[in-house]
């Protein structure tokens, strides 16, 4: 029986649902996520609605029986492409904010979602940062502006998670570490990595959280299906509201 006072979140770059066998199989991603049984799921590299068919975010949400919010950052072959959040908890509102850096390789964004939990609101920021060092430095500066993760209107705790494309302690890590705690698997899980899934040697997927949340556990979901479904492994964390 799940503890209803715990919030289980996962960040997962699904690589357009294209597995290591180069087959696009949303059903495999759904199977991985079903095994994790998270309350809130942050996905990156998601293809949205377009070309006359349903998007991967909507398909996964329907398969898992969850609510869905999608943040389009650019078009890919005529369809939306960006980040998504799936949730079994109520989503009170969401917005997608531009993180594109001047001269960056491609458009990037941060999907901001408010999740209702036990009478409180948890503010979740799902992002996918650039691959270039200077691009990420500019995105780090954007992150801590009042328009993004520091709005004065926020009342509940914040969770910032996603694919940071930063495997060393760059400016993004320093900026977020100054304001948040980190579910750092390098410390908590002793040298574990998240990418690539079969033989991970880089730690690019991260979860940061406010002090109002108590981190109960963090783990990598490493199953046979997860090793083939995407080139990333899902990173899972459980939180409890300190007030509860």
SSE arrangement:
Elements: E1 6-13, H1 26-36, E2 40-47, H2 56-64, E3 67-76, E4 79-87, E5 91-98, E6 109-117, E7 120-128, H3 133-143, E8 158-163, H4 171-177, E9 181-182, H5 185-188, E10 205-209, E11 213-220, H6 224-229, E12 235-241
Parallel strand pairs: 1-2, 7-8
Antiparallel strand pairs: 1-12, 2-4, 3-4, 5-6, 6-7, 8-10, 9-10, 11-12
Helix pairs in contact: 1-2, 3-4
Short description:
The chain is α+β, with helices and mostly antiparallel strands. Helix content is 20%, strand content 36%.
Report on this structure:
Helix 3 links the parallel strand 7 and strand 8. Helix 1 crosses helix 2 and helix 3 packs parallel to helix 4. It is globular and about 40 Å long. The two termini are 18 Å apart. The protein has 6 helices and 12 strands. It is α+β, with helices and mostly antiparallel strands. The strands form 2 sheets. Strands 3-4-2-1-12-11 form a 6-stranded mixed beta sheet. It has one domain: 4-Layer Sandwich (Deoxyribonuclease I, Chain A).
